[in-house]
Write a structure and sequence with these properties.
GO terms for molecular function: UDP-glucuronate 4-epimerase activity. About 40% of the residues lie in helices and about 15% in strands. With about 425 residues, it is of the alpha/beta class. The radius of gyration is 27 Å and the shape is globular. The structure holds nicotinamide-adenine-dinucleotide (NAD).
């Protein structure tokens, strides 16, 4: 007799349809339970950025970048001997300030999250320039306190030049939370790390002329009203100034706020009027020109050339006193300053357009519109007496000269490479 394998005559159990439906429902309910009770995926920027730092090679790059040219210890303060953490280093102002500090021998480490508020390839191009000059730009977010603490563990920064922010007035109506994330939460995160660092660095940071908001007294002086912001951007910068006061008062952080007035120049920001006017005039596209209501005159800005702003930033660093806190505790009164950095000669936007037309040798197609209520103010004009006195700040570039340098850069950058802005 041949033994049959035991399974030959075995048949599928005879499940009835209701039983099958019952087990299928139990199975589906189980899957649903697991999905509902498992933690959501973390898409926060902190997580995304922490993976890119921390290796030995990364630490070495940070150390090398922070090294001053003279190799003397960073506490022998003075130009060429400082170790500066520059946040927003791949940004417009940040890249210029980082270059200027590196050029004179300071150690500079950059930090930037390379967000896509405007074309990130422009930020990458600035990063390349910085790397060629010896400045390492760490990719990360100012809200990532673990990363910030790590940077302070590796380097005893003497100064922080804080330029990372969500900039732009109009975008605040589209993406308000990005302003809270970078300009408020990010600022607090940075101050928290600075106050706990030993030694505490001195902090210089970018506020904005937008804090003057609906103030009508001109030129705008530091003591004028700043309690009527016209945009969420302005409100977050004003909040930043108050937060700075708190960290100075409680923890002895030396803090200097700089209210920049419409900065322009090579490697500028594509979201700003002078930049996209240039692009659109070249393409033959109409540009919007906003008209002020009759009784308010024309829309005008105190355009300030980037090199003048850089000098103001560097002077603010050089005149910043040391923070007085230690181990997170204040040991004495610390310096707290706010300066206007402007050009002191407001120019109507129509004049800006005619200078661009001459430089580009092309007429603009102007689309004249009533000024929308989108956060923009009609007029800015800086009183710079205080910066003159304390920082020896003296803007030297007029709009015609500065725009010529911008247009030359623009044509070179976008012309040669077929990049599109
Ligand atoms: N350019 C101006 O006319 C002007 C005027 C007034 C004030 N400001 C202020 O000056 C500073 C520099 O402005 P800019 O024109 O160079 O702008 P920018 O946008 O070119 O530079 C800011 C940089 O910060 C980075 N960044 C933003 N949020 C970040 C975050 N959470 N973590 C890390 N990096 C972050 C961005 O990627 C960007 O590269 C900003 O604080 C801005 O608000 C600029």
């Amino acid at each position: 007799m041949v033994d049959r394998p035991p399974y030959v005559h075995r048949r599928w159990p005879n499940y009835s349809a209701p039983k099958l439906i019952f087990w299928a429902s139990i199975f589906a309910a189980l899957i649903l339970f697991i999905i509902l009770h498992s933690p959501p995926p973390d898409f926060s920027s902190d997580r995304r950025t922490t993976t890119t730092w921390g290796s030995l090679n990364w630490e070495r790059r940070v150390q090398t970048s922070a090294r001053t040219r003279s190799h003397s210890p960073s506490h022998s303060a003075g130009p060429g001997h400082l170790s500066v953490l520059v946040t927003g280093a791949a940004g417009f102002v940040g890249s210029h300030v980082s270059m200027a500090l590196k050029r004179r021998g300071d150690g500079v480490v950059g930090l930037d999250n390379f967000n896509n508020y405007y074309d990130p390839s422009l930020k990458r191009a600035r990063q390349k320039l910085l790397e060629r000059a010896g400045v390492f730009v760490v990719e990360g977010d100012i809200n990532d306190t673990a990363l910030l603490n790590k940077l302070f563990d590796i380097v005893a920064f003497t100064h922080v030049m804080h330029l990372a922010a969500q900039a732009g007035v109009r975008y605040a109506m589209k993406n308000p939370s990005s302003y809270v994330h970078s300009n408020i939460a990010g600022l607090v995160s940075l101050f928290e790390v600075c106050k706990s660092a030993n030694p505490q660095p001195a902090v210089v940071w970018a506020s904005s002329s937008s804090v003057y908001g609906l103030n009508t007294k001109v030129p705008f002086a530091e003591k004028d009203r700043t309690d009527q912001p016209a945009s969420l951007y302005a409100a977050t910068k004003k909040a930043g100034e108050e937060i700075a006061h708190t960290y100075n008062h409680i923890y002895g952080l030396s803090i200097t706020g700089l209210r920049f007035f419409t900065v322009y120049g090579p490697w500028g920001r594509p979201d700003m009027a002078y930049f996209f006017f240039t692009k659109d005039i070249l393409k033959g596209k109409p540009i919007p020109i906003f008209e002020a209501p009759d009784d308010h005159g024309s829309v005008a800005r105190d355009f300030t050339y980037i090199d003048d702003i850089v000098k103001g930033c560097v002077a603010a660093i050089d005149t910043a006193e040391k923070s007085t806190g230690s181990g997170g505790k204040k040991t004495g009164t610390a310096q707290l300053r706010v300066f206007n950095l402007g050009n002191t000669s407001p120019v109507p936007v129509t004049k800006l357009v005619s200078i661009l037309e001459n430089l580009l040798k092309k007429k603009a197609k102007k689309n004249v519109l009533p000024m929308p209520r989108n956060g923009d103010v009609l007029f800015t004009h800086a009183n710079i007496s205080y910066a003159k006195k304390e920082l020896h700040y003296k803007p030297e570039t007029d709009l015609q000269t500065g725009l010529k340098k911008f247009v030359d850069w623009y044509l070179d950058y976008y012309g040669s490479d077929k990049k599109s802005s």
